[in-house]
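Q: What does the assembled structure look like for these inputs?
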Amino acid sequence: MTLGSIAPALAESHAEAGHEETGFDASSTILGHVQDAYDWHFFDWDNHPVSVPLPVILYNKEQGTLDIFMSSRFEHGHAEVNGYQADHHLHTITRADGQAFLDFSITKNVMSMLIGVALMLWMFLAIAKKYTRSGAHVAPKGMQNFLEMCIVFIRDEVAKPNIGHKYMRFMPLLLTFFFFIWINNMLGLLPGAANFTGNIAVTAALALVTFIVMLFSANKHFWGHLFNPPGVPMGINILLTIIEIISLFIKPIALMIRLFANILAGHIIILSIISMIFIFALMNEVAGWGFAPVSLAFTLFMYALELLVAAIQAFIFTNLTAVFIGQSVDEAHHPDEAHGFEGAAHH
Amino acid sequence: MLPSILTPALGLFAWTLVAFIIVFLILKKFAWKPILNMLSERETTIANNIAAAEKVRAEMASMQAENEKLLAQAREERTQLLKEAKETKDKIINEAKEQAKVEADKILVNAHAQIAQQRNAALVEVKNEIGNLAIEVAEKVLRKEFAEASAQREYAKSLAAEISLN
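A:
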């Protein structure tokens, strides 16, 4: 979320606030901006939202009907479409009659992800073509050089030390995780963009992939240690098994929450600092103008930090996935090392 | 009440899962596999090249050592040859000198002998010549002395007188 879209949107909130007495509601503005929406809203111009409508796909479970239409048909919450209603900012869709429905709409986040995915496919298919065309013995150039550096980093610093000699099997997954998260994190930082990786549904989906890969790559040794820890008395054995099973589920949940919270927090902080201009402006116009440079300086700082966080969180997610996979495929040679790493990574 | 921020939306969840898996499968087949293969191929080549270069360097070093050894050997041989040549030269010179001396001595001895021989021959000739001359002179003298018959008789008488005296 984004500098560019924030200020005019806040101005709109400000204008609305003019009608009511409540003033500028920073928390609802910020939450509005980090939420998913059914259209891609850029800014308001002369009190009219400038936005790109997106397809809405709804399946009514009780009637068994599928509705596909553009979100512009809601007319910013003023119109009802086939019994569906939306709020003014198109954040939620509800049914007045309370019938249950499934929502597979191409929302702002889905759209953002599709852009990120297209970018990824274009980038990597292009450089893969470069490799296959010019062969292995030509030095990489430009973007290929940079991406190769990242790929080699994931291989040598993430996959090899955490997974061991079976690392090559998991390299495609780890690379996809790293670049998927990183590119989408960066896209989220663009002005007017979505808060895709700061959405819990997204991180839940990614963590689910890690969880499934963890379970399916686990060997006998892993399950043996999980259900029957060697060398412990019966009572503690039961306790340990319970703890181990809980920790099995905590691993992906921690992944999910970490990425979600980090990205969301970054967006909220930037939005909060920007909102402070308007909070000050409500008290006094001079204070608002006076605080603007301070706020901009803070925002720039946070932006730089968020650029760093975008890469770091992608790395951490990938690295922890590698650690978990490493535990699943570990052959009991060096359990201390593996546990030590997990402990360090959790902190 | 918490906003929808903490409740995952099923649609977004499903789309993310599907998109991620599709991207994973496409990139795995068409990007990651070729890229990773190329990278490891290149690394193997580079490692091999480095090993080969190292080997060549070691070979060069050993060759250089060998060269050095050969050079030293050659130098030693040259010194040896020079020394031998000098010795040979000295020997030849000495031999030549000796031979020359022997030859010279021989020539000298020969010369001496020849000189002595020639001198003897000359002496003999001179003696013969003197003898002949004396005989000739004696003949002439005798011829003159005994030209008259009275002288011959007188001489014979003196000779006979000498004999009778004995």
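Residues 234-283 of chain A form the longest helix (50 residues).
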